[in-house]
Write a structure and sequence with these properties.
alpha+beta; eight-stranded mixed β-sheet; 19 strands; globular
């Protein structure tokens, strides 16, 4: 018997397991492949407040505060660096979008500035090429190492007594008398009084038998990663229309992503999941990110992959213990391509919901009931990463 089963060892699930275990809650973390096998590990691993929906901004700001002390709290390196986020414009129309973003987020209390020409951009990021004509800079944003961060949460959770079960697929959430009784996996049964569902794109497979569903449109993003080079760029780079993004990692490797594309539906199962990407997306990413950071064009590409995005209709996550769900079921899904930064806070929120049914954070905008009868439709992505 365990108190809480957490399904999915991405950053939210891993952080939730750590929060629970550190509070003395008997916790079992179940992962179909290995920690950070999908969305969290595939991501750009930006830690940003800028570009956030107003409902998400308080969570992002709280998360950034937690990232600063996370290495010490977890006893491991996340490779977090607070070196800024640059959102760039290549046309006058894109510059208008970014200028409006700066006005709105400044009014919300975020320290963000508008860079009105290429010289202003190069003054803070000399590696940026002439294609960028304007931009926003949020100096308190940053980035971390995606896989190392998730592994740090998992290791810390285990030190506090959490059980990690990898290579195990949850087949069903068990219900008895209107409340959670445990889970059935392909390896057996785990009895539990609560379940936190943080299984990404696979979550609905477990919700539908319970008469529940998070409306998701599944998309993909192509990622290229280079061999290490001399560090030339500190900030995470994005653009106004989200058709590319990238950064340079702590060891000098470039990590560049495409824009959001429809997913073709193919997922190759194995020791780890893989999503094939199209040659056209690779070429487009090199062209678009290379125009912003010319040095990237000469990089030697070591790895290529595609990551999946579980996009909700309003591009906001579900963080909820729904009234319509069996008692003891908590849902953390639909992070829409920008959930990595929030992990330290969403993990705490999910742990709170699993133990007390409430959270000190403002989570009313993230309830499942807001979607009504919507299924799978979504607004176009304007910002990601």
């Amino acid at each position: 018997m365990t108190d809480v089963v957490v399904i999915g060892a991405g950053i939210s699930g891993a952080a939730c397991a750590w929060e629970l275990a550190s509070r003395g809650v008997r916790t079992t973390l179940v992962e179909r492949w290995h920690p950070a096998a999908m969305g969290s590990g595939w991501s750009l691993a930006g830690v940003r407040q800028s570009g956030r929906h107003p409902a998400e901004l308080p969570l992002a700001r709280a998360a950034v505060d937690r990232w600063a002390a996370l290495d010490e709290a977890l006893g491991a390196k996340t490779f977090y660096r607070r070196q800024g986020n640059l959102r760039l414009a290549r046309t006058a129309a894109e510059a208008d979008v970014i200028e409006r973003l700066v006005r709105e987020q400044s009014a919300a209390g975020l320290d963000i500035e508008f860079l009105g020409d290429h010289d202003a951009i190069r003054a803070v990021a000399p590696a940026i090429g002439p294609a960028a004509i304007a931009g926003s800079l949020c100096r308190s944003d940053g980035h971390a190492d995606a896989v190392a961060s998730v592994q740090a949460f998992v290791a810390a959770a285990r030190r506090h007594g959490a059980e990690l079960r990898v290579g195990e697929r949850v087949l069903a959430i068990e219900i008895a008398g209107g409340r959670v009784a445990g889970v059935t996996t392909d390896k057996g049964r785990i009895a539990a009084g609560a379940v936190v569902l943080a299984a990404g794109i696979f979550g609905n497979e477990l919700l539908r038998p319970l008469g529940l569903e998070v409306p998701l449109a599944l998309h993909m993003v192509t990622v290229l990663r280079s061999t290490p080079t001399t560090r030339r760029l500190d900030q995470v780079i994005g653009v106004a229309n989200a058709d590319c993004a990238g950064r340079q990692e702590v060891d000098g490797r470039w990590r560049a992503t495409s824009g959001v594309e429809p997913w073709h539906g193919e997922l190759i199962d194995g020791d780890a999941p893989r999503v094939p990407c199209a040659a056209e997306a690779l070429a487009g990413t090199v062209s678009k990110f290379g125009a912003l950071v010319p040095e990237f064009r000469a990089a030697r590409i070591a790895e290529i992959w595609a990551g999946l995005i579980d996009l909700t209709p309003d591009a906001l996550p579900v963080l909820d213990a729904p009234a319509a769900a069996p008692q003891g079921l908590v849902i953390g899904m639909g992070f829409s391509g920008h959930g990595f930064c929030l992990g330290p806070v969403t993990g705490a929120i999910l742990a709170d919901l699993a133990t007390t049914g409430a959270s000190e954070f403002p989570i009313a905008p993230f309830g499942l009931a807001r979607f009504g009868a919507m299924r799978g439709s979504a607004e176009p992505v304007t910002l990601h990463g």
